[in-house]
Design a protein that fits this description.
The chain is an alpha+beta fold. The strands form two sheets. It has a ten-stranded antiparallel beta sheet with strand order 3-4-5-7-6-11-12-10-9-8. The protein is globular. Bound molecules: zinc ion. The site of zinc ion has 5 residues, from loops.
Length: 346
């Protein structure tokens, strides 16, 4: 914790026997649940955020073998319309740095370097932000192993997700993950049938299954298995192949969902992206649609912070938006071929 003001961070830490007992068993999922219940009582803004979830409107569209829900959630306006260009980021106070957190906010320290915090603008019935305690830029290459440990240690209740700095993170300058209830995103449940119906198994051995899936709306690579080492090695191979397609030295655009089950181990789903926001976001007047797709939207819960968009959205419009933001077929084929060739040599 060298770079951190110890006194300040101690002030934020949640001190509770019940949570402590779960932490001793490495059960951070249940510890987080205890934190959320307590924060709802102590922090009015958070309580209001959750209360507003009770009355939100949702509609669902059926695709061939899967669902996309649309959630009208006014609380998400700040995140969906966040300015993420370098200048705007430099001019604002970072909302994930511990010294800028609201006075009522408490957190659980995770492996000496991350905090588990309640998200005051929830999408999920239980929604957490997991920032590093230091102000580092969002980077999955540096933090993939932490994504795996979070997924395992919070697996009692939650799926962990990551949004790349150029495709959905509203704090691209501060390394963080998020966590939300398992099975809230339709893809959590649909994954196996989508893999059977639309997937191509690229690698399958006793340690690892890697698949490429194109369900007509989204293109994604999945990694499944019990071996942390095999997952990390194959992710690094994927990262390098995908990077070779990226412009500049930017992190290649991806949104990741990661979950863990005792019986089957980890399941990492990586959505491959072409751009952050579709042209609809930048339209003036009538044609404007404020949807800023990230992991949760692509996982099947698409957020519209404005009612006009919730009313207007159709299956055809969703298809238009996804067509723009998801990677093209040529690039996807390149990634699949490259994984087949390189992971087999591991
Ligand atoms: Zn920060």
């Amino acid at each position: 914790m060298a770079q951190v003001n110890k006194k300040l961070i101690e002030n934020i830490l949640y001190d509770d026997e019940k949570a402590e007992a779960f932490i001793r068993k490495n059960d951070y999922g249940n510890a987080a649940k205890v934190l959320l219940e307590s924060q709802k009582k102590e922090w009015p803004q958070l309580a209001a955020g959750y209360q507003s979830l009770d009355s939100i409107q949702v509609k669902a569209f059926d695709f061939n073998g899967f669902k996309i829900k649309v959630q009208f959630n006014p609380g998400r306006i700040i995140s969906s319309s966040a300015k993420v260009d370098a200048k705007s980021i430099n001019n604002r106070k970072c909302f994930l740095c511990y010294e800028n957190l609201p006075a009522e906010q408490k957190g659980i320290l995770y492996e000496h370097e991350y905090l588990i915090l309640c998200n005051p603008f929830p999408i999920f019935p239980e929604h957490f932000t997991l920032p590093n305690i230091n102000h580092f830029a969002q980077s999955i290459k540096e933090s993939f192993s932490k994504l795996l440990s979070f997924s395992k240690d919070m697996s009692q209740h939650y799926t962990i997700f990551y949004n790349g700095p150029k495709c959905g993170a509203s704090a691209p300058d501060h390394l963080h993950f998020q966590a939300g209830n398992k099975y809230f995103m339709p893809i959590d449940e649909e994954f196996n049938s989508l893999k059977d119906k639309y997937g191509e198994v690229l690698i399958q051995n006793d340690k690892l299954t890697v698949s490429g899936i194109d369900d007509g709306l989204r293109k994604y690579i999945s990694f499944e298995g019990h071996s942390e080492k095999a997952l990390i090695n194959s992710f690094n191979i994927f990262y390098d192949s995908y990077s070779s397609l990226a412009k500049n030295n930017d992190e290649p655009m991806m949104n990741i969902l990661s979950s863990y089950q005792q019986e089957s181990g980890w399941r990492i789903i990586i959505f491959l992206r072409n751009k952050h926001r579709s042209s609809h976001y930048f339209e003036e007047g009538e044609n404007n649609i404020l949807i800023s797709p990230a992991a949760v939207d692509i996982g099947g819960v698409c957020i519209t912070p404005l009612e006009k968009d919730f009313k207007k959205i159709t299956k055809a419009l969703l298809q238009d938006i996804f067509r723009e933001i998801i990677i093209g077929k040529e690039y996807f084929d390149f990634i699949k071929a490259s994984l087949k060739k390189k992971i087999i040599q591991l």
